[in-house]
Amino acid sequence: MPTWLFYWGAAIVLVVSFVLLGVLWRTPLLAARERGREIPSALSRIVLGPGRILAQVVSVALFVVVWLSAVFGDTDPFRNLAPTWIYVIFWLGLPALTVVFGNVWRGLSPWRAIADAFVWVREAGGSEARALAEYPVRLGRWPAAVALLAFVAMELAYSDPASPRALAFAIALYSYVALFGMAAFGRDTWEARGEGFAVMYRYLSRIAPLHVEDGRIRVRWPLTGLVGPERVPGSVAFVAVMLGSVLFDGYSRTTTWQDLVARVEGPYIVDDPTFGELLVTLLNIGGLLTGVLLVALAYQAACAAARWTVNAPRSLTGDFLFSLVPIAFVYMVAHYFTLFVLQGQFAIPLLSDPLGRGWNLFGTAHVTPDLTVISPNTTWYVQVGALVAGHVAGLAVAHDRAITIFPARRDALRSQYALLALMVVYTVGGLWVLSRG
Amino acid sequence: MGVVAGLIAHHTSPLSLAVEGAILLALVVFFGWIWLRERRRRVDDTRRVPEMRD
Asked: Phi, psi (5° rounding) for residue A217?
């Protein structure tokens, strides 16, 4: 089937979904189902008690192994655990775990584990562990947006992102900021506002059927956590980084971008390659920021158009932000699932020899990854399916919000025209980028 | 190659060109219909501020 047919087929699916949502989904459904029901309390106690402590110990141990590999291991990225662990297992595997099991990062964050241990020791010694300062409310989630942007810039813009030594430096820097932020403003505050990964996994966990409330695990319908408004400053910027970075990653693989990179780097490649690499990094940063800005502007424009359409008395920007969360997730699935399945297999031998010293700690050092496990056709179908499903989910979340905030159904539906156009643009644009990469 | 020529060039048969044209036309008509309807409504009840909940 020709590629263009997928673009427009996806657009038609969205239009039909929009019509069906308008006809069939007449009262808000998500809010009443957001809390779900409790799982057996004994299971909650085990998972959130000893289970969480065990996860934190393992997480800190792995963190130390990965960092030591980055500092002292082989400089060849394929013989060092750190690049594969960070860019594949952590960056791509955890989002998938999160949308299934909820906010597992709460138990797996090594920085949170270290901070928890510090607080526990202080409290055991009779002292109180208190935050040093009040978090400035106006900063909102901007620090988290900047942190996530820094990480994706390292991955997508820097000329040698898989360099173990560069990763060692980045890990140290990020750890310093994360621990300082938790010490200064409190663990929960910094995780909710400043720790980029924690904020991202919190957003993604709203898709999940499992969540924790008052120290108990509850089960609910998937996507029902995406209810309500999100008005914390910097939230739009944060979600735009999530979406825009993946968009740029796809576009940076097109021949158009590669030609541009070659033209910029070409004149310096022999005489001054370091300067050439610097120019490429700057060019990539420009592309990355453009991708993020485009996503943010498209969303802001859609919300402004929705407000204009219904003559709403206030901004709608915070009301529909959660509808972008499933889209951000499916962008990750569509762009990276092959990388995860193929490159992720290399983690198995690397775990036995994390520093590339010829060790065989767990007897898996000679496991050979199967790189033929997915065909190009399967890849394309998964990409199209994921993108369409994610955008339909986004439409449904926005529709539920619209019929929640507008008592008149006519206003609710009219507010969604612009959101539908936005979803069509995101879907067709996303597929176009994927097909050219 | 011009933009329009580029859009047509990937088609291998007149049928596929017609199908893409029809789908695009349907999308343009759909969004155009919404646009026109909203413009007319805007003129009719431009001062009406909808009730909103949080």
From this structure: -85, 135
DSSP assignments along A8-52, one per residue = HHHHHHHHHHHHHHHHH--S--HHHHSS-EEPPHHHHHHIIIIIH
Q: Which residues of A touch B19 (CB under 8 A)?
A: 5
- Residue B53's Cβ-count burial label (10 Å; 0-12, 13-18, 19+) is exposed
- Rounded Cα–Cα distance for residues A394 and A325 (Å): 7
Rg of chain B over all Cα atoms, to the nearest angstrom:
19
Identify the contact set of chain B against chain A, taking CB-CB distances under 8 A.
10, 12, 16, 19-20, 23-24, 26-27, 30-31, 34, 38, 41, 46-54
Indicate whether A326 pLDDT > 80: yes
CA A9 to chain centre: 27
List the single best residue of A1, A3, A4 to mutate versus B (max B Cβ within 10 A): A4
How many whole angstroms from its chain centre is CA A429?
Answer: 19
What residue spans of chain B are helical by DSSP H? 3-9, 14-44
pLDDT tens by residue, A139-189:
999 999 999 999 999 999 999 999 999 999 999 999 999 999 999 999 999
Q: How many residues would you count in chain A?
A: 437
Does the model's ipTM exceed the 0.85 cut?
no
Distances (CA, A) of A399 to A35, A325, A396, B28: 20, 14, 5, 22
